[in-house]
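User: Hello, can you help with two protein structures?

Assistant: Certainly.
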Amino acid sequence: MDFFTRNRSNFNVPNTLSMIRLLLAVAVALWIEWQSYWPALIGFLIAASTDFIDGWWARRFQQITKLGRILDPFVDKAIIAGAMIALVRIPESGVMAWMASVVVLRELLVTSLRGMVEGAGGDFSAKQLGKWKMVLQCAAVAVALWCLIEQSPGPLWLWLRSGTLWAAIVLTVLSGIEYVLLVVRAPKPA
């Protein structure tokens, strides 16, 4: 147990999991492009679900590092953006180019804001709306992949795909607005 609490180097369990998730993000995009939807879905679910594990591990065993604070949100963005961009190429996926664009633009904006705030010594931790946004984005990608696996999904699956995609896009925009407002309303240094 002593190893877990003292290992604050960049080579630790959370950062290793983040690197594995990054490799999975690339693999998922490739599998989608190759129309190998089962491996894409399994890889995506593993990458998305281990996001919770690396954060929990880092907090539980005090293995939070500067690299991890940068790498973890970057990998989250790579997983979602990579999958959504790959899905745009497949008309049957239901993911449209403007949806992927909204996701990517929001992530670029929030990453820029995070760099600005944390560069000035402030805290830019994830907010609840941003966490729910990630959950809905993951659900939307997973349902879109499932519908591609099914090839002729029933109306319930098509409705679920549309509902999760639209909900994810709405939360993506709202959470982006929340972060902008937090920065705009933050007290200015004297």
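That covers the first. Now for the second protein you mentioned:
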Amino acid sequence: MDVGQQIARIRIDAEALARAAEAGPLDTQVPTCPEWDVETLVRHIGSVHRWAATIVRERRTDRPRLSVEGPTGRTALLAWYRDGYEELTATFEAASEEAVFWYWGPAPNALAFWCRRQANETAVHRRDAEAARGPLSPLETPNALDALDEWLTLASLRSSATPGGGRIVRLAPTDGDRVWFVRLGDRVEVLEAQSASDCALTGTASDLFLWSMNRRGTDGIAVSGDSALVQVWADSMRF
């Protein structure tokens, strides 16, 4: 998925998040982020959009501090949020893939990293906003496959799941041609194709991604093998 496609994803999911947020009270709790209400969610993702835009626009080589901002008042906050994602996408469109600035995960270049990261972060938080209003909308299959691949790659850099004891979870999307094998232990490791796993989950790429991010349960997902690893994942694999 190229930079332009990721930018288009940001616009779609960022606006869908705004519509979900404005569809009800901002003090409604977000079930998928129990410590947040919708207002906190909007402030968080609006601040993240501005933070990422600053890194790219100013070509920051350090990691700037993220501060949660946003005006008071429903109308002003939602307008501020929309201004933020417009700023983000405009900044990405104006940037060069040759430019050098700080990023923290595998990617062909810094701009590609940030476009993908913000597309997938915005996609997750769109579903958080939707969770406060009703059911979650599924991700389109190509987007879900990209999001799942990125999440597992980043999890291997920063996550641990010691109770997993080195056991392997297999994630097999029914609408994709790739299967992921993830070892859960003192460190999380994405493995090359394996012949066996301790627990296997099979479902749509969207369902598997949202489950892997603790945004849904396993309803509609086929689970086989050591189902205790489902809880280990839920307790350990957080972003």
